[in-house]
């Protein structure tokens, strides 16, 4: 009568399409929520999904129903002290008239519809409409990953990869080829024998000769092996190098005394955004941290963000170091090079033209993209003006923006990487 | 009953397929004793994620795609993952064979409870109750759902996701008005449906064009026709009317309306039999598991666990409890069926006075008769006994917006029983729960506007989302919509879509 079926292994994500329909429909809401979340989130926190809330009235599905008012007689359980005809003061507040239960119970979550999106979805929404400029993937020649692809059939190989159909087909063909003439002869001999017998011939010698020939032919045919090593065919797999795209991202930051912890924090958020963004386009990303005051040093992440040093500012020291590292470790034909520089704009005045020249002559030609953010509420400094010349020379791969507060980070980032529509 | 002699089926709380089969066999054997008429059972074990999927598709095993199911899913997922709510232990589908989902997280005791509840309780209700018998066709629903899903995804391919989504939004807004309340439909099979669908498309389009014929006529005849209201009778099935008569819809759009209408029809009996259906299932899981215990097939520990679940299911918080959210249909239904049995088996003087025709009769056939021939409203009106009202300590509160305070109109005493019973029954009357809105007339020779009429019941106005619903109606009809709200014969207010200019607008918003 009853059947018990185990459905646990069936697909469990039946609702995926409906969920995506929902996200699609409320795309604008979600994007807004994501934008807010990005500017609100703490630095290390970009790797999670996000809780999105949408005002319930925006996602309501309206139906015709009764409103408040009129005359309603409702039955409730749990009477203790009421008697018939007793009058009760109308409860104050939202649930007017409905008695105690309903309004209060639904009150929670009525204003906001809250749900969770995954990290991937979060990043999708975050980077929607953004594109990496000059996205040329340079492939590594001596790469270390391979993928095996089918490459037809070969005559030798590993027994586990025998292709049975092709082997038997080859065997069949060989058997036909080697026994063809014998079979034809056999057929003729059999026909001849049958004809003689039909005719009631008593010519014993010729019958014997025929029978002998038939036996010989049969032996000959049987000697051809069913399957020969010669027939075996193997599936051939070949290794193909898997071109992986790699990028290196240089983070350059000014750590001179003028950079406060808050400014560094802003810089860090900007770097993280850039890192996440690059990660979506490249399989492998290396990050090089270069910090500088009057001299530059390559450091690890912790030191980059948290240790403080004081001193003056010579930006060109960082650019020089970056260029050395590029030459030593990241050859242009293998790596996609990105750099983001954050500074409060202070620099020795006579150093700024040096920076410009370094960028123009040595760094920019091999760069995919160089972005400079100036984190300062003040007027632009000399460095900004010099960089404007760089921007003019490399309009596609150089950009600079100013950030005043943490709330600007994401808009500025969007500004920098806005997908450009090619003319 | 046999003495408790047998070994219990299990002593552990882990379930296995073997044990589930064993319990099912035993419960089936007991159910046979009560001659429960059921569809064959298909018990499916699913995971919590799959249960959430099932939730999201309002219990349909196959559904077309729509964002609102996604919304439902997100809400369920969030509630479940944060531990704010548990999932139902079971979902059962009115189909032949009757499909019941059991969650793998359940303990063995829970699985047994669910089998008794869903596979024998709900199942026999689906098969026996007159509403389900006349409104749904259990054997064809799965096929029909498959057809609907395929058709709608074809429409999405042809006309774009957005167009279909908009249309479905509009249909869903009017879904509760897609049912013939007073006529009984003939359920047709999915096979038939597919065959008819293409002819219908062409045929329909021809008819509609005829209705809106623009060939001029002699003027005298014209005026005569103008005076005649059309449709001659008010139409309660709004979706049906739109499907047949909306002037601007494409054939595929009419078909989609039809699909939503059919689903509304499929769910219609369920909305009218909550108390009866849940009460019936609860009554039977209680009875059947107790029988298992009496036969010694389950251990004391199992029984304690069972009773804990059971009392959770039939818990009825009082009106002033923070957990109160109306009357629990499980509790009310269970109490009523139990009391019917008591009245049959051990009637007292009061029962003989109130229920002379069933007091002392055979309980099983009385109970089955009650299950088969009523819906919530009439079931309560017929069978709610004074004892149940006393046990639940029911009372009714009259809220009249023309009076300053609320009034307790009746409590569980001699003078209040009848009033309570009528009031509670009316509370389950779908006709009272939903505003009575019908299609009144169409201006066929003028601006083609559609006028609906809302008849107020007890002066209750329409809710604030009515304007939004009219938008959807407008989208389907294609011309102006007017919604007149009447109290008796008197016109109270009129809503318009698109909204009219200032004065009337402010009037309607004040009324809202």
UniProtKB/TrEMBL annotation, chain A:
Composition bias type Basic and acidic residues, residue spans: 71-89
Domain of life from the UniProt record: Bacteria
InterPro entries assigned: UPF0229 (IPR006698)
Chain spans, region Disordered: 58-107
Gly residues biased stretches: 92-107
Pfam families attached to this UniProt entry: DUF444 (PF04285)
Family stated for the protein in its record: Belongs to the UPF0229 family.
HAMAP family to which the protein is assigned, alphabetical: UPF0229
Protein name (Swiss-Prot/TrEMBL): UPF0229 protein GCM10007363_18020
Annotated organism of origin: Pseudomonas fluvialis
From TrEMBL, chain B:
Domain SpoVR-like C-terminal: residue ranges: 435-486
Domain of life: Bacteria
InterPro entries the UniProt entry points to: Spore_V_R (IPR007390), SpoVR-like_C (IPR057008), SpoVR_N (IPR056174), Ycgb-like (IPR057270)
Residues in SpoVR protein-like N-terminal domain copies: 14-432
Pfam families, A to Z: SpoVR, SpoVR_C
NCBIfam families referenced in this protein's UniProt entry, alphabetically: PRK11767.1 (NF008737)
Protein name (record): SpoVR family protein
